[in-house]
Amino acid sequence: MSDLDDFKATYFDECSELLNELEEQFAAIEAGERDADRLNAVFRAIHSVKGGAGAFGFSALVGFAHAYETLLDYVRDGRIEMSDDVVNLCIRANDIVADHVKAAQTGDALPADYGMEEKDRFDALARGERDDSDDDEGGDPIDDFDIEFVPVMVNLGGYQPAAETSSGVEADDVFDALPMQVEPGHWEIRFTPHRALYARANDPLLLFRELAVLGDMHVRAVLEEIPALVDFEPFAVYCSWEITLVSPSITEAMIREVFEFVDGDCDIAIAQLGNSIAFDIPAPAPAVAKPAPKPAKLTAESDRADLLALADDEVADLLDFSRDSDVAVVPALTAEKPSFTPEPEAPAITVQDTFDEAPSLSFAELAETIAPSPIPKRAASTAVTPLRAPAPAASSDGEESSSGGNRSVGVQSIRVDLDKVDRVVNMVGELVITQSMLTQQMDETLRARYTELVRGLEVLAQTTRGLQDSVMAIRAQPVKTVFSRLPRLVRELATKTGKKIKLETVGENTEIDKTVIEQLSDPLTHMVRNSADHGIESPETRLARGKPEIGTIRLSAEQAGGNILIIVEDDGGGINRERVLQVARDKGVVAPDVNPTDEQIDQLIFAPGFSTASEVSDISGRGVGMDVVLSNIKKIGGSVHVRSWTGKGTRMTLRLPLTLAVLDVMLVKVGVSPYVVPLSSIVETIQCSRASFERVPSGGQVLQVRGEYVQVIDLAQRFEMVSETEPENRFVVLCEAEGSAKVALIVDDIIGQQQVVIKSLEENFERVEGIAGGTILGDGNVALIVDVQSLKTTIVHKNAA
Amino acid sequence: MEALGFRDDMADKSAVAAQNSLQLIAFSIGEQTYGVEITTVREIRAWNGATPLPNTREFVRGVINLRGTIVPIFDLRARFGDGPTSPTKNHVVVVMSVGDKWVGILVDAVSDILTVSRDDIHNVPEGNSIDTELLNGIVTHESRMVGLIDLHAVVSGAKMDS
Amino acid sequence: MTILRVLTVDDSRTILAMLHHTLSNAGFEVLQAEDGKQGLEVLKTEHVDVVITDINMPVMDGIEFIKNVRATGNHQSLPILILTTETSQDKRDQGKAAGGTGWIVKPFDPEKLISVIHRVVH
């Protein structure tokens, strides 16, 4: 069933959020923040995981989560102390819950005893504290969850089973003379609501309606308790009812179930009786003629009688006991014991249909119908209350108009399909570009001539910027969604390597576009792995080096202009440059006669297929190295830089764009074709006539800029275009590749700066060397995005080969 | 009854015909006529230039903007080894879907929509390797020879090194 | 016949989604809130015929929420169903004491859910 699949998808989404939340909470709890709020949040998270799991029948997950939840409940109410041991157990338990969730998602079965050890420990902890307590909440042994999780809806009112319906004693209290002969199928119910019943918005009418579904029902209101108007208390409850219910298949349990919610809020007596003796049943018509038994009272309180008549009238209308509403009114007034005729042909449907009309009756209308004098009017509106107290408050005029005027839901957040947001982001991207194109079209003559148009364009520019920022904010997410996956990784790495590692995070609330966040997870995992595996030393080594036994990996995020910086630092041994260089030479990445600087050596760890660990470790190895980090980051227009201090640690800095939606670029011309270069990688531009080029022995050119020699790539040559521009009129676009390696691109002209939306070439074609994608310019033509990194890399390879 | 029988017969015949026939868009390159199945054609537009793609083979004319997506254009004449087309505004780009991708084919002109019978499709005679590589078959229509283009083959091998 | 509006209050998106599905299929109009505080906000501006609320929620839990609803003049007769996985009487009693009209035990059976709603609302 696809609906179910949808719900499951939602559930697994939610689980991953909840698991992240658990990581966060426990990071704080581990740091000593053990306040009630955190414990409650943890409890709720597990509770929600369990709740959903129950709905889908993930029984292993439910079982474990239930045991864990019980432990948390005990911790929350102080029965179990949140010692460091318990914290560690909980953290382990979170991982197990995560594994259960994953297993449920993938459909892979975990070993049957998975998490059993921990569960036993929960149980032991719970039992240890439980001997002296016989609280009901969570009091069952933890492994009893199976029984608790049968989806039971009802049957909790402590009713007597249907078989024991000879409850003569109870019945005697209510009815004066009960038949001794019990006959199945005929029930008498005496129902006396308390004030609390109305206070909780229960409604006798609804109970009657539900009873009416069970069989043929007749209700008589008992009104003797209603005092004289002077003594009338508006919110007191004076009315009770006697109900006759006839159906061969009813059990007392079924009747009790109807009254389930009002158990304790009313007196209820249920008796089964023999048909023959039960009530003498007057026919409806004669009942009308019957004189009221208490005429004195009636005449004295004639306005009250009207009122009651009306009230009962309403009941009669609603319940549709009889097509003749008088019938219902009169028995109410006569207040004589036996009341109405069973009406066997009245189907339950009729009853429900009439109920649907009930809300159309408003208090205002009622008040109008009732006697015109002010006193009864007041009495009316109050006296009606106990009879139909649960009338929805919404029928009041003010409410109606306010809800009518604004039907939108007043919640503070809504969930929107990401696709929809993406579409908006893309369109806003196009809008930004169209706007900047329009602005560029305005030359000085136009500006002078059309001042209004210019002003309009300025406003448009502002609004577009604002719109773009707002839209991007919608899709932005805090980096903690990625960060929070890492503590577990570090724990596992520490266990596997026998190291002691502490993970610190800073700036996890820094927000980045979701598209960037998604690309961040893998590289970050690799970087943290690298730090744990290669950076942090064993506890012995650390102690021997005079460092604290526990190594620290520090993750931080900060915004720096249009970029986001993610820094992974460790206080380990730093990069072993000798080894790195050795491996690089062995693998031919670095020529034997080249002597790279320290910084260049550090950067070598990102070279394809490079691994420095002497034995391929279980953790970082498997042939996938830091080059994956580099290529992933490059793919999203970011860069990675590494710095290392021998014996002190390593710092890796990821520089990422805030968004992938719009790219700031410089528009250039190569041959006759437009190209764009990402602004983030441009250091400066120089006119060729002012640049100092030098020849190198291979015949190539290098550019000397501020004492540094930089590789030169003539884009026209590289892209096999014909340059018709005089060499001195061409431009150098000095770009920075990863690290601080620079490359000088020669272009034929610089047209200007603008923003573009990146379009994929691969969607309809394939990857093209040296090109990162395409974009559509204001005139509708396609411009290609220069991939500075890959241009540089291919050059290096060509030289090495 | 007879009338009914006759009608049934008609229905059968046209069903067979529909099953067995093929509608082609025919276009020309020089004197040659080629065709592609009409169902693969998305759009036909006049040549309006393309942004050249570096490091691709001669027959990749570049990319165009087709309502916000980038679509590559293949020069069919160049693909058949007859050198690049010198396109004018009268040249035509036939946009087609190949698998899940959209590509444009630059041709001289679109000539006709043809209905041919599948039974009339002949194998490409062995000999010229480019023909056998790029054509699915040959069909004769009004005494003209129409080469059926194998689109997958046309768009493959676009990179310099492949 | 008017369409009944149900306000569902739960911090679990899964439960909200399932309630939404079940209730809208049954012809109800469904409003959603993720905690008691949001629930109260909705009630300020929206007419609602019945409320279904979870107990364990951040910001404002179900018990507080029910108390607050009952404390508001025009919501004294608004039916509130407590959504709970607690099979022990405890939570339910607390919810009832706060003014809850009835309860639904998770995981709920769609038909049962609808019938329980009809038990408390016109």
UniProtKB/TrEMBL annotation, chain A:
SUPFAM superfamilies: ATPase domain of HSP90 chaperone/DNA topoisomerase II/histidine kinase, CheW-like, Histidine-containing phosphotransfer domain, HPT domain, Homodimeric domain of signal transducing histidine kinase. SMART domains: CheW, H-kinase_dim, HATPase_c, HPT. Residues 390-408 have a biased composition (Low complexity). Transmembrane segments: none annotated. It catalyses: ATP + protein L-histidine = ADP + protein N-phospho-L-histidine. Pfam families: CheW, H-kinase_dim, HATPase_c, Hpt. Keywords: ATP-binding, Chemotaxis, Kinase, Nucleotide-binding, Phosphoprotein, Transferase, Two-component regulatory system. One of its GO terms (biological process) is chemotaxis. One of its GO terms (molecular function) is phosphorelay sensor kinase activity. InterPro entries: Bact_Chemotaxis_CheA (IPR051315), CheA-like_dim (IPR004105), CheA-like_homodim_sf (IPR037006), CheW-like_dom_sf (IPR036061), CheW-lke_dom (IPR002545), HATPase_C_sf (IPR036890), HATPase_dom (IPR003594), His_kinase_dom (IPR005467). Residues 449-660 form the Histidine kinase domain. PROSITE patterns: CHEW (PS50851), HIS_KIN (PS50109), HPT (PS50894). Its EC number is 2.7.13.3. Residues 1-104 form the HPt domain. One of its GO terms (cellular component) is cytoplasm. The keyword Kinase applies. This is Chemotaxis protein CheA. The lineage of its organism: Bacteria, Pseudomonadati, Pseudomonadota, Alphaproteobacteria, Hyphomicrobiales.
TrEMBL record, chain B:
GO terms for cellular component: cytosol. PROSITE patterns: CHEW. InterPro entries: CheW, CheW-like_dom_sf, CheW-lke_dom. GO terms for biological process: chemotaxis; signal transduction. Residues 21-160 form the CheW-like domain. CDD domains: CheW (cd00732). SUPFAM superfamilies: CheW-like. This is Chemotaxis protein CheW. It comes from Devosia psychrophila.
From TrEMBL, chain C:
Pfam families: Response_reg (PF00072). InterPro entries: Bact_response_regulator (IPR050595), CheY-like_superfamily (IPR011006), Sig_transdc_resp-reg_receiver (IPR001789). The keyword Phosphoprotein applies. Transmembrane segments: none annotated. It comes from Devosia psychrophila. Coiled coil: none annotated. Keywords: Phosphoprotein. PANTHER family: CHEMOTAXIS TWO-COMPONENT RESPONSE REGULATOR, STRESS RESPONSE REGULATOR PROTEIN 1. Residues 5-121 form the Response regulatory domain. The modification 4-aspartylphosphate is found at D54. This is Chemotaxis protein CheY. One of its GO terms (biological process) is phosphorelay signal transduction system.
